[in-house]
Amino acid sequence: xxxxxTIFSLIEKTWQRFDSTILExxxxxxxxxxxxxxAGFSDINSYDSHHDLxxxxxxxxxxxxxxxxxxx
Length: 72
Description:
There is one protein chain. By secondary structure, this protein is mainly beta. It has one domain (about 1-65). The protein has one helix and four strands; from the N terminus they run ββαββ. The protein has one helix at about 30-40; strands spanning about 1-10, 15-25, 40-50, 60-65. A hairpin with a 2-residue loop joins strand 1 (about 1-10) and strand 2. It is elongated, with a radius of gyration of 18 Å.
């Protein structure tokens, strides 16, 4: 689903317009965890941005921390 942004910034006493379209695809935590396991990651932990990390600017976001052993 595209997110269309229009931002106005005051630069050197002149308003400048910036338009951008961000394309996002959302996945469930289960889909991401499964994909990480399939790719060889372990110790997979997820953190809710608002409840666990107290980041109020990103409600609904989840961060994942995991490890993957790399053979030398």
